């Protein structure tokens, strides 16, 4: 199988980005974008060139588990935010375009600075101060929300999220749901207030986040759960 891989490059310390087209050939029927990038980097050590005759330097990108468990290899593939370990070359028609996530500052090539997600969770105070006993009827919500990879794909497609704004997006909604579903009702007041400020007031409920979630998390259900806990008072 031959495929033209078009990668948006951004070298460390440089101001401008540029496109680099690389002709790639493989005999592996189920090769992923992750595997292709890794092999291209090995070929780069041998001195391969792109279609314009320029030397191909090693492509900088992040990866870890290769099993859709860590979210490290998040990028934009043919205009769709995906994990490189879950994007198969055979699904693309002879050419594939690879770019970094666009909602985050570029560090180098396909590596972006996603620290804003951690900072947002810190503002939401997403941690337990005491031990909790999860009620049986909340187990499904707690388990589902615990599967969030914090990969950032949901924020990439969210029409309401912009780094630095008060709306924190699904990357904050999901772990907040886990916490709201775990702690006792009498200890939720501060978290409910933060949820209303950083989630409820900004979410347009487009649910584009659910379409791209590599873990298949039902964001609509978790959003409904958190809205109920945070916005309604029981008599």
Account of the protein in words:
By secondary structure, the protein is of the alpha+beta class. It contains eight helices and seven strands, in the order ββαβββββααααααα. It has helices at residues 33-45, 115-124, 139-145, 153-157, 170-182, 189-200, 208-212, 219-231, and strands at residues 2-9, 18-25, 74-77, 80-83, 95-99, 106-108, 111-112. A five-stranded mixed β-sheet has the order 2-1-5-3-4. A hairpin with a 2-residue loop joins strand 3 (74-77) and strand 4 (80-83). The longest helix has 13 residues, at 33-45. It is elongated and about 65 Å long.
Give the tags:
elongated, two-stranded antiparallel sheet, single chain, five-stranded mixed β-sheet, 14% strand, 235 residues, 7 strands, alpha+beta
Strand ordering within the main sheet: 2-1-5-3-4
In percent terms, what proportion of residues is strand? 5-15%
Measured as a percent range, the helix fraction is: 25-40%
Order of helices and strands: EEHEEEEEHHHHHHH
Tally of helical segments? 8
How many strands, what sense, and barrel or not for the largest sheet? 5 strands, mixed
């Amino acid at each position: 199988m031959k495929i033209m891989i078009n990668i948006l490059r951004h070298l460390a310390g440089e101001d401008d980005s540029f496109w680099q087209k690389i002709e790639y050939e493989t005999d592996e029927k189920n090769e992923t974008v992750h595997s292709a990038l890794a092999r291209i980097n090995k070929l780069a050590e041998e001195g391969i060139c792109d279609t314009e005759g320029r030397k191909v330097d090693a492509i900088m990108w992040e990866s870890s588990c290769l099993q859709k468990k860590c979210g490290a290899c998040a990028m934009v593939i043919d205009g769709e935010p995906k994990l490189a370990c879950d994007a198969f070359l055979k699904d693309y028609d002879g050419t594939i375009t690879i770019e970094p996530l666009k909602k985050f500052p570029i560090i180098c090539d396909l590596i972006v600075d996603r620290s804003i997600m951690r900072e947002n969770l810190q503002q939401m105070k997403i941690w337990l101060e005491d031990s909790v006993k999860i009620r049986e009827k909340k187990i499904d919500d707690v388990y589902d929300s615990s599967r969030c990879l914090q990969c950032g794909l949901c924020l990439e497609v969210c029409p309401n999220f912009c780094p630095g704004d008060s709306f924190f997006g699904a990357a904050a909604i999901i772990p907040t749901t886990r916490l709201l579903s775990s702690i006792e009702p009498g200890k939720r007041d501060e978290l409910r207030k933060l949820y209303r400020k950083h989630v409820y007031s900004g979410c347009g409920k487009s649910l584009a986040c659910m379409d791209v979630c590599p873990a298949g998390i039902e964001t609509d259900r978790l959003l409904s759960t958190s809205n109920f806990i945070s916005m309604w008072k029981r008599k």
